[in-house]
Design brief:
The chain is of the alpha/beta class. The protein is built from 23 helices and 17 strands. The protein binds one DNA strand through residues 28-35, 37-38, 62-68, 102-108, 141-144, 146-147, 150, 267-268, 270, 272, 275-280, 282-285, 288-292, 335.
Length: 596
DNA sequence: GCCGTTTTCGGCCCGACTGTTTTCAGTCG
């Protein structure tokens, strides 16, 4: 029998279908929640469920207990689950596609499919659209004219959503938010402003921009917010307003009086899973949490909080950094007093991945600024050292000897440029001559052995053949990190481009083991469209004892400012200063880089 | 179906919003 290997997303989708079916079948509602929770949990795993099953570790998945584990076991052994099939049979098939339409849940979808007899329809969403436009929904019990219109517009939204997901890279959202927050702060009644949601948690991509303001004059501040240039006022109420900017981005403002600001900030920062866990934890202390404050279950009396610190303190917990609020064990760590002290941007002492405009006839793009400009910028940023990591000379256009010669001349040129720069400035910054070397499809490096003489160390990265299968890709990377003693950093390890390209498919545990063996640091590339290693893999790698190098991959002086986004990724992975090699001072870092 | 700083039994996050309803069910974040 051929057993297809289901991905985490496919398993999560299957569990959600079971949850939806149970909801229609009026099963115990906590059983439904359990299935949804297991689905969420599996969707966000960094390892494949199948691999965990292989190793007998299904019980390590939060929300998966003996029941669901038993069914997953059957799924992996036989390719299907009899019990799931039986449950699904009791619900018309057409229900499931409708669940993707905003506003339609299991109950409504079921009602519509049954009443409109959409069972056999090939394109259920299309058939529903047609029925709505023909006025067949309004007469159904529980629906009306308004819901009929809503369904038509929801289907339009759904179809648009199929084409393109409207998220933006973190720095884009950050820039927009900073500007609006600066605008808000100009109003004298504004006591405090903060970003909310995924933006505050520094998730690598952000949907809507949510901003909070503390004020005793909510109406005035909301009106001031509406002075900010926008194309459309979407919504306005006592709690704030929503506008659509000229660039099409949606911005929500929430206003709250200062003495109750803490609970609001906490609630709207999320994540949803963090909040759910926190509220469960609150209930064990007979405290009911909401965006308004904390209520004593016994007496019903409500307490309000100026700050998040006070809110968490009421629960007997220290404040938890927003980047950690993903229900990855942070609440348990807080209870145990074991929250890590996360790395901060000012801990960073150097940037090791910088491309200058020196033309070494490389296969990939050069930077636009000079070595001296980058050094000056580094000194400005208080860095003790930088690494020049231009791409290797192209191997198709040069012979080995030509490459060696280019690298030799480059080293001499950089040293000469460096000494003339040092003479001109009061503030020093040390330099390492490095190189970003391509990992070829077979795992060999695109720099001849003899050329390594002319570099202090190299970053190895994948820039081609991104779609190799898992085994080849894993072997390729493992081979590359051990290919030469001067390989010290694995550059943008997954190769993903946010919103554009998935990362490569590799066995990360094996890659991490190889990096650990050769003491190679994983890069956390701060370039906005990369943010690679992704935060969830940083979290995993950290548990394997790996260290990281946060770099900007700057191709222009200004881009060296992007370091903070790499730091955000590290913080989301729970990294401390001690986990980051370029948080070391010059001497220690040099010893590490040169393996002294 | 899951889970444990009150528990291996008896709980399970909370509130807003919406549309359809005279008191609530469904959906969402």
């Amino acid at each position: 029998m051929i057993i297809s290997i289901m991905t985490n997303l496919e398993i999560a989708t299957l569990l959600r279908k079971i949850a939806a079916a149970y909801q229609i079948l009026e099963e115990n509602r906590f059983k439904i929640i359990a299935y949804d929770r297991a689905a969420d949990s599996i969707e966000h795993l960094t390892s494949e469920t199948k691999d965990l099953w292989d190793n007998g570790k299904l019980d390590e998945i939060p929300g998966v207990g003996s029941g669901i584990a038993h069914y997953l076991d059957e799924l992996f052994r036989t390719g299907k689950v009899k019990h799931f099939d039986d449950v699904m049979k009791r619900v018309p098939k057409g229900v499931f596609p409708l669940l993707s339409v905003p506003g339609l849940g299991p109950k409504k979808a079921h009602k519509l499919v049954t009443e409109l007899r959409l069972k056999g329809a090939k394109d259920v969403v299309g058939a529903l659209d047609a029925a709505a436009k023909a006025g067949k929904i309004a007469p159904i019990e529980g629906f009306g004219e308004k819901s009929q219109e809503d369904i038509i517009s929801a289907i339009a939204t759904y179809k648009r959503g199929q084409i393109k997901e409207n998220r933006m890279e973190l720095p884009v959202a950050d820039a927009i938010a900073q500007e609006i927050m600066a605008h808000l702060k100009k109003h004298s009644a504004v006591v405090r402003v903060d970003a909310l949601g995924s933006l505050r948690r520094k998730v690598s991509t952000v949907g809507d921009i949510d901003i909070a303001a503390a004020t005793k004059k909510p109406e005035e501040v909301t009106l001031h917010f509406l002075d900010y240039p926008h194309q459309k006022l979407v919504e306005q109420g006592p709690g704030g307003a929503t506008i659509l900017l000229k660039n099409g981005r949606q911005v929500d403002l929430r206003v709250q009086r200062p003495d109750a600001y803490g609970a609001m900030l906490q609630y709207f920062t999320g994540s949803k899973h963090h909040n759910i866990k926190l509220r469960s934890y609150g209930l064990t202390k007979r405290k009911s949490l909401s965006e308004h404050g904390i209520k004593e279950v016994k007496t019903g009396s409500m307490r309000y909080f100026h700050t998040e610190e006070a809110f968490y303190k009421e629960l007997g917990l220290p404040w938890i950094a927003p980047e950690m609020r993903e229900d990855k064990g942070e609440i348990e760590a807080a209870q145990a007093g074991k929250l890590p002290k996360l790395v901060e941007t000012q801990d960073i002492k150097g940037d090791l991945h910088i491309h200058t405009n020196y033309d070494l006839e490389s296969s990939h793009d050069l930077g636009v600024d000079s070595l001296a400009d980058h050094l000056t910028k580094a000194a400005e940023l208080d860095y003790e050292y930088i690494g020049l990591s231009d791409h290797n000379p192209s191997i198709t256009n040069h012979t080995e000897n030509q490459i060696i010669d280019i690298m030799k001349r480059r080293k001499a040129k950089y040293e000469q440029l460096y000494s003339s720069w040092v003479k001109k400035v009061s503030r020093k910054c040390q330099m390492f001559v490095m190189c970003e070397v391509d990992i070829l499809p077979d795992g060999k490096l695109a720099l001849p052995e003899k050329a390594f003489e002319f570099v202090d160390a190299v970053i190895v990265s994948i820039h081609s053949s991104f779609t190799q299968d898992k085994k080849h890709m894993t072997d390729r990377i493992v081979r590359a990190v051990g290919a030469h003693p001067k390989v010290r950093i694995l550059g943008h390890p997954t190769g993903r481009l946010l919103l554009k390209r998935e990362g490569v498919n590799a066995d990360w545990a094996a890659v991490f083991a190889a990096c650990k063996k050769h003491d190679v640091a994983l890069e956390i590339n701060a370039y906005p469209s990369r943010l690679d290693l992704p935060d969830d893999l940083v979290f995993d790698a950290l548990r394997e004892g790996l260290r990281f190098c946060i770099d900007t991959d700057a191709h222009a002086v200004g881009q060296m400012e992007m370091m903070k986004y790499g730091v955000s990724v590290s913080r989301r992975g729970w990294a401390t200063k001690g986990d980051i090699v370029n948080a070391l001072g010059y001497n220690e870092f040099k010893d590490w880089l040169l393996k002294i």
